[in-house]
Amino acid sequence: MNRSAGAAAKLSESDRKHLGVRALAGSDTISALADQLDVSRKFVYGQAHKADLALDNVFLPAAPDDEVLFHLPVTRTWLRQATLALTLTCRSSYRGVVEFMRDLLGVSSSVGTVHNLQHWAAAQAGLINRKQDLSGIRVGLHDELFQGSRPVLAGVDAHSTYCYLLAAEKQRDADTWGVHLLDASRQGLAPDYTIADAGQGLRAGQKAAWGDTLCHGDVFHILHQCEKLANTLGNLARGARTRREKLEAKVGKAYSRKRDGSFAAGLKRARQAEVQARQLARDIRTLTQWLSHDILALAGPVLATRQMLFDFVVDELQRREFLDPHRIRPVRVALQNQRDDLLAFAGVLDVKLAGIAQAVGVPDDLVRAACLLHRKPTTSPAYWRGWGRLRSQLGGQFQAVFAAVAQVMKHTPRSSSLVENLNSRLRNYFTLRRHLGTPYLDLLRFFLNHRRFVRSRRAERQGKSPRELMTGQDHPHWLTLLDLGPLQPQRS
Q1: How many CB atoms lie within 10 A of CB 22?
Q2: What CATH number does domain 65-218+418-492 carry, 3.40.50.790, 3.30.420.10, 3.60.40.10, 3.40.190.80?
Q3: Contact, 209 vs 181, CB < 8 A?
Q4: CB-based contacts of 407: which residues, under 8 Å, 6+ apart?
Q5: Burial (Cβ within 10 Å: 0-12, 13-18, ≥19) of residue 383
Q6: Tens of pLDDT along 10-60?
Q7: 343-380 pLDDT tens trace
Q8: Secondary structure percentages of the chain, helix, strand, coil, to 5
Q9: By C-alpha distance, which of 381, 383, 345, 351 is closest to 367?
């Protein structure tokens, strides 16, 4: 019987698997299976053989624990690679490395040997760091970390997470910041703007070094300050309720014993204090939520509207300031002084959204509606109602507009939180090396910039290092960059 050409090639992997299982089961003859699928008997035999091999592999006896899996050529170069990888990748202590070498490899080492290798690698890392071109950084994030009482000045690229500044200093004044930013400028660093908190030394140093380069306000820190105030007032309100309940219990006992109600006046004051504390806590919580979810949120109204709402929140805080001056006043003053810096991101977003509207040729309000749609969770009916309404208004241009708005929002940072993320990664190393110096920080900066991300919430970062994300160019493994030779070939 002639078989149709290509019938076997058209079978999916799932179909081939089922064919092999059926052939092994023997419920149908090989000829019958071949006729059903219009393939040759030889093809059916081939699938049965593959299925048989797969079953054999599954039911093979487990390999003994002492079976040699592979041989590894151990050289002096490999030992140096392993030593450095243990301290950086595995965050091992020097004595832990010595113990590992002794117990598992039978190699004698010492703390001094490990330290000397670190010192040599730090020198190599410093040279590479200082040669790196930083001209690709468009938005810089600045902040001050602390190891004990000693400040560590930090700078991170908002897009790639590349750390271009990590320096331990005795002080964090304008001159110190200015010197480091000028050094970075010599490597090509000239961002469109930066984001930082309200630190005076940091901002004055940038002004001295970079002149008119804008420094936007960091939304993360001010919202944290507002949230802390709301939580504190909430705790005070709960404390006022507890005191009122205790007084009510005392008054009840006094009346049950037919004593004079001497607690009545105190109970009245406690009730008034509770009402006032609860109302104040509720108001401050509401104002904080407005700031977080409406005014300082990325998806929001135009800059002018945000400014009006921001001023309203500040005015409402000022009206309630007399109720708890030493807690409310610092937050109100911080908001009032930082308004333009905190809302600077909204101006950047407005320009980008207007550019999308002009490029695609659609009204500005529809592009803004696409932006505001991102405020709603994709699981809510309101999101999909808005999605459908916007799609009917934009027609065939909906996908292009929606995708462009999503990209614009993704690349409009509002905070320097990436520096906080860097801080959390550095803590594991700072606790091991209490003595911080420029060489050690150079090594950490090099390692974190050239180590590839194993996982990330952003798919484009997975399998890439910060340097590769910043430059768009691949580079060898960080151990190879340190002139420690190539890695062992990967086992297949």
Answers
A1: 19
A2: 3.30.420.10
A3: yes
A4: none
A5: middle
A6: 788 888 888 888 888 887 888 888 888 888 888 888 888 888 888 877 777
A7: 999 999 999 999 999 999 999 999 999 999 998 888 99
A8: 65, 5, 30
A9: 351
